[in-house]
Specification:
Blueprint: E1 2-3, E2 22-31, E3 38-48, E4 53-57, H1 64-71, E5 79-84, E6 87-88, H2 94-104, E7 105-109, H3 120-124, H4 126-130, H5 137-146, H6 162-174, E8 180-184, H7 192-209, E9 213-216, H8 220-223, E10 228-233, E11 236-242, H9 246-259
Parallel strand pairs: 1-3, 4-9, 4-10, 7-8, 8-9
Antiparallel strand pairs: 2-3, 2-5, 5-6, 10-11
Helix pairs in contact: 6-7
């Protein structure tokens, strides 16, 4: 099993780390059956270490989004195992899996998926509202401060820029203090300047809040914000690069593209 390793450490005292991480063991996902079957993932074993930022990259069709969806419990695996902390997702009932996704996994996607009739504050606390829980005021204030949303929490999505909406989406992902946040091309709908800001905020969530982040991206510059990059090819883990730079990632992607 290839395990990503930390390449960066925040300055000063280390922030408290979440107790769990996510990992897969020989994860296989097959779409369809018979001659038309497509093996999207082929016995993928990968670890997303607690308190670290991992990027997932690979050519089109390599299995990036499928890996994320299975690891996040959004798709069932054909075989193999997925763990969030010490919980095996395949062993959970639908009800317990829904609860785990709501309370222990955060999601950030290209589409911000904010409810237009709710304020930023209400969108942020929505996972806890659905669970019948009250947010910790101190943690809410910390997340809002780190993501620089203090003067925007009373605004509705239509009154926010794209970057501000993505910040709200990230705050919503963090509010439950999840074991891991999965981000699927989180800068895909943003201009380069706003995208860079969101990546800086994801990096800050790891360094300043002790969060665990796994991000699918096609952008070498985005991947360079991570502690490590997991490269997929043909449904399997091809390589894991610690301490990535944009140039190293680009060179690796060119190698993978030349083989496809």
């Amino acid at each position: 099993m290839k395990e990503t390793a930390a390449a960066r450490k925040p300055p000063g005292a280390s922030p408290p780390r979440p107790s769990g991480s996510a990992h897969t063991e020989r994860l296989t996902k097959v779409h369809g059956s018979g001659p038309m079957a497509v093996r999207a993932l082929d016995e993928v074993s990968v670890v997303f270490p607690a308190g670290r930022f991992t990027a997932i990259m690979g050519p089109s069709g390599a299995g990036k989004s499928t890996l994320m969806h299975c690891a996040a419990g959004l798709e069932d695996a054909t075989s193999g195992k997925v763990f969030v902390g010490d919980e095996e997702l395949g062993a959970l009932s639908d009800r317990r899996l829904t609860r785990l996704r709501r309370e222990r996994i955060g999601f950030v996607f290209q589409a911000f998926n904010l409810l237009p009739t709710l304020t930023a504050r209400d969108n942020i606390v929505l996972p806890m509202t659905l669970a019948g829980r009250t947010p910790d005021p101190e943690w809410f204030d910390t997340v809002v401060r780190v993501l620089r949303l203090g003067d925007r929490v009373a605004h509705r999505p239509a009154e926010l820029s794209g970057g501000q909406q993505q910040r709200v989406a990230l705050a919503r992902a963090l509010i439950t203090r999840p074991d891991i946040v999965f981000a699927d091309e989180p800068t895909g709908n943003l201009d380069s300047r706003t995208g860079a800001e969101v990546l800086t905020l994801l990096r800050g969530a790891v360094d300043d809040l002790g969060q665990t982040v796994a991000m699918v991206t096609h952008d070498p510059v985005a991947a360079a914000h991570a502690d490590a990059v997991v490269f997929l090819a043909d449904g399997g883990v091809d390589d894991v690069v610690d301490g990535p730079t944009a140039d190293r990632v680009l060179d690796r992607m060119r190698e993978l593209g030349g083989r496809s």
